[in-house]
Model the fold of this input.
Amino acid sequence: MFVHQVRADQLVFWRGRESAIFVFLFPVLLFLLLSTVYSGEYRGRPLTDYLVPSLVTYGVANTTFGGLAIILVVRRELGILKRIRATPLPAPMYLAATLCSILLVFALQAAAIMALGRVLYDWHLPSEWPSLFAAFLLGALCFAGMGFGAASLIRSAEGASAVVNVITLPMAFLSGGFGPTRDFPEFLQAIADVLPLTYLVDIVQGVVYDGKPISEQPLAVVVLLAWGVAGTLIAMRFFAWEPRER
Done:
């Protein structure tokens, strides 16, 4: 049943052109755009060495937070989630299958960005590549928890994309997902210090530039887990399977 539901979610996702463009292609297109605009070096290495993993971290937030929240809100308001509850498919299995489908999309997206970086800019995986992939997985799971929480609070399908974009795009900009933030004003850096994506970018850049495995960055890991747990707790309290009353 689980495999069947994951397959069904994948078919629905790729047949929906709008969602596929927003969730899958947008970070890839951003990478192509930013890599042609930005030039020079960062910490003695080409700026593309920064952009490749950073755009993958943005893909984490865009896909597992934004994509998951939008999908669940739209399905709830269309009555799909309500009908799912009337089938033999257990509710936890349905949510797990939806999450697994989103993670598959993210994995393809990350592979596309890294492959483009390798082909176009000779980007290489860092020596601590297991930690890099562990960071991406940790970020995906934590932002997925936040996505479930956001889906529980967003009240309408019409407003889902707007809410997600208002959160995701400024967060990516302030956190360093679109480029280094060393020249940002202090008040913007202060805001960035409380954002979860900042800590994911810090983990990734620590792996890429300093060769620090994820196990040597406990503070960033704890902050990410805290955000993920907070989102999950909100979902456990407020998640609804039926359309909201208008």
Remarks:
- The radius of gyration is 18 Å.
